[in-house]
Amino acid sequence: MSADGDVSIHNFSQFGRHKAPQQRYDLVVVGAGGAGLAAATAAAKAGRSVLVVDEHPIDPGLIGLDVPYLFGGRATSAVQTPDRLVEQIFAARPALEAAAEAGVELELGVSCWGLYVNGPNLQTLASPVIGLANLEKAWMVGFDQAVIATGARDLVLGFPGWDQPGVMGAQGFASLIDLYDAFAGRKVVILGTTDLALQTAERAVAKGLEVVALIEAGDAVQGDKARAAALNIPIHLKTLPVGARGGIDGVEHLTLRPVGGGETFDIACDTVVMALGLVPQIELLDAAGAKITRDAKLGGFVPQVAADGATSLKGVRALGDVTGVAQAGDAYVETWMRALMANTPAETMLCQCEEVTRGDLLDLRPPRYLGEPSETMRRQSLTRLADDGPVNQDQIKRLTRACMGPCQARRCREQTALAMAIGTDTPLASVPLAGYRAPVRPLPLKVIAETAEPADLKMNWDVWFGVPEQWVPYPAIDTPEEPDHVAYISATKYLK
Amino acid sequence: MSGQELPSGASVVIVGAGVTGLSTAWWLARSGVSVVVLDKGVIGMEASGRNGGGCSHYQSPLFAEEQRLWPMMDELLGYPTEHQSGKIIFGITEQQVDYYKYIAKCIRAHGARVDDLNGDDIRRLVPLAGDNALAGFRAYTGGQANPQRTVQAYAWALRDHGGQVFQHTPAIGFERAADGKVLSVITPRGTIGCDHVLLASGPNLPQLAALLDIDVPAAPARAEMIVTEPCPLMDLRGVDGNGLYGRQTARGNLAYGGGPHEWMPDLEPDGPKARPTTPLVRNLAARVAGLFPKAAHLRVIRSWAGVVETTPDGRPILDRLEHPGNVTIATMSGVGFGLSPASGHALRDLIVDGACSFTDISKLRLSRFEGLDPDWRRQKGWIHAVAQEFTGQAALAS
Predict the structure, then answer these.
(1) Beta carbons of B144 and B238 less than 8 angstroms apart
(2) Burial of A351 (0-12, 13-18, 19+ CB in 10 A)
(3) What's the mean pLDDT in A351-364?
């Protein structure tokens, strides 16, 4: 194999290994929401070959993991048979039909777990590609242009009991109500009074559900006041959830406490919907190396985009909510998190997957499987680490394991950053983004695997760099035995 | 300690807060030497915190010291490293088995106990293995640890002994005496005087050493790993094979790497601009599922890449240079994590005593590359190569 005429590139490198996939489109669109379908339909009408993929109906296993939204264990058994939900999704999104009629190829129940384009330190792809998967297998698709229209997910803040069924997010709620018609609750409390919260309440009421109350840690309704009044639902201002209690089916009561002290009181409910904010789902773009900026009013970290949605990645545009969703901003979210940190115990769960509490994070406590921390370890803390330089979420997650679990930090990423900022008295905006990694959906080994290893890869696969001299025992170096070792390693380690 | 002021001087200044630099600093601080470590970014954020965690390096002159130290490291450092002794390697093809027999022989040459394993032995010892497990071995030396926890443990233990680490503080130059000796290291935050300087900056060591007119041949490359969700712990978690390196973590995740890497252009002083992964995740997943058929249902939750340097013979350079006399250079040639307790000891000895006290490392001197053709990367094909991108017929107007 050679890069140009006179240089033979080392066989054990990636050069030449990343082939262009058979399947290729002028345009691939990830996400069949309004923005994605509009772009797809327009391109198809202009004669382009267009593929749209959308992960709904979601793998039931992922719904249980709260991927991509906080479903909170409140889906009916309807989600266990995703195939039967396709018709329901078509009914809920008429633009799908129109896109299909315009010639767009639609793949529902297909998730996009990776976006790969050449850029700094990756120059060996023969084509820009996306990685796709359904329940059984994964495959790659090449493209000239891509539109990432992955929308937004739920902003999640923990309070005691939030890790039981019945505590969910506004996006999870909306998808179960509108997209799947598969919501299992009846009696709902909504956290927040933003327009998102008001919209969530209206959605619930329209569905015939009972909305018992809206809870607001701040001292005023955040969203449209008239819209809030029209709901005719009790709104508890300067109030916090301090406990969700329930039984085998999850939440039965939410315990509330006035911020700043006072008597707690209970509200009977089976569902608590967090509607404090939305988080743009930038993971494909960030993992692919797109330039990311931070805008609190748009939901935090967002891709840097031109007017037409062009990202810093060649041929890749971002459209719709992934580029940002207008919302209250850092101060509002910080008000909530500060109140929760002041009024709920340090034992409150932060990371459900890895069972890391908020106190564990602030103490920088090693995970519990390592047993009781040593005397020296007990002297360390997040604030002490902050003396060594600005707190970095990627570093903290490696030490505490918060954000390291199978939900890929969808339930704890933002609240970890908030707790780090508040715990070290650092502005939230100065906490760097914890990097996203592919696969951005957790996929079984047997699903994501390329089952038949390509022959050229098999021939040139080494555990490390394909340098046999590296593994010659030290005493043999520079002795007559050395060539024998090199020959034996080469003969057995690599296929011929 | 970025809030703190850079001290005016230290006996030893180390450039690079990876495992090699931090371990050396810790060894020096334990000996009562004043030491400061500088890093362009965050402690262990490059390859030192991104590797497979293996601690089994039969090929190294540091092997015996590596094996002696690891079981004591938690206690010596005062912080957990998640180290576990013991190692199983097994093959699922005849050729792999042949190669693993060679490794077993090399480990036995150290006088260490190694048991041969047949398929049934493997299935008994490795619950995730399947019917395809052919043969392999179990070594009672070797083992694995958590790189991320270990690198921080070095940094904390260093501080407990009075040493200092300055993050976000790259070395950008040196002040030198007329005889060439390094007087101080220049950083954007000021200049720090030193009696001795250790260059342990990994993939950008060539560029750093070039500032002192020292030619270090090492080529940077990007390598990739994947990790699954946790599963029940195996008794012995240091298990690999099937062309993979890696381990089951103390949490239960399967973390494995292997396969092709990508040669990179020379690095800038501020390090790699990006550490992208590729669709190789699919091939790594297939190899892990091949090694552990009973784990094939586990979800892959992350992949990552790290940037490492490789010398022309793939072996470390650990050398206190004769000229200018107060400069030591260290690269482990991409295989540094597991050997770090021992490499730090050896480098401490070189810096303080002028020679390694516990083993011969003379074959790891830089001088072995004297006369190396400057075009060596090209000759070996270890060069940054750009793929010819396939372009489709229709360009879409944006």
Answers:
(1) yes
(2) buried
(3) 97
* Interface-testing mutation among A4, A474, A485, with chain B (most B C-beta atoms within 10 A): A474
- Beta carbons of A427 and A464 less than 8 angstroms apart: no
The alpha-carbon gap from A55 to the nearest alpha carbon of chain B, in Å, equals 17
* Mean pLDDT computed over A192-218: 98
Judged against a pLDDT cut of 80, whether residue A153 lies above it is answered with: yes
CA–CA dist A378, A372 (Å, integer)? 9
A372 CB-near residues (< 8 Å, 6+ apart): none
DSSP string, B16-66: --SHHHHHHHHHHHHTT--EEEE-SSSTT-SGGGSS--B---TTSTTHHHH
Do residues A278 and A321 lie in contact, with contact meaning Cβ atoms separated by under 8 Å? yes
Query: Distance between CA A204 and CA A232 in Å, rounded?
Result: 13
Residues contacting residue A221 through CB under 8 Å, at least 6 positions apart: A193, A228, A235, A237
Nearest CA to B356 among B62, B155, B134, B104?
Answer: B62
pLDDT at B391 over 60: no
Confidence bin at A420 (pLDDT 50/70/90): very high
Hey, what are A400's tokens? 């505490």
What would the DSSP string read from start to end of A49-76?
A: -EEEEE-PSPPHHHHHTT-SS--TT-B-
ipTM value: 0.97
What local confidence, expressed as pLDDT, does residue A389 receive?
80
| Domains delineated in chain B | 9-79+146-217+313-380 (3.50.50.60), 87-140 (no CATH)
| Cα Rg, chain B, nearest whole Å | 22
Distance CA B248, CA B146 (A): 10
Dist. CA A65–CA A405, nearest whole Å: 10
pLDDT for residue B390: 66
Question: Which residues of B are less than 8 Å from A465 in CB distance?
Answer: 221, 223, 261, 310, 314, 334
Distance CA B48, CA B202 (A): 9
Q: Note whether A493 contacts B99, CB cutoff 8 Å.
A: yes
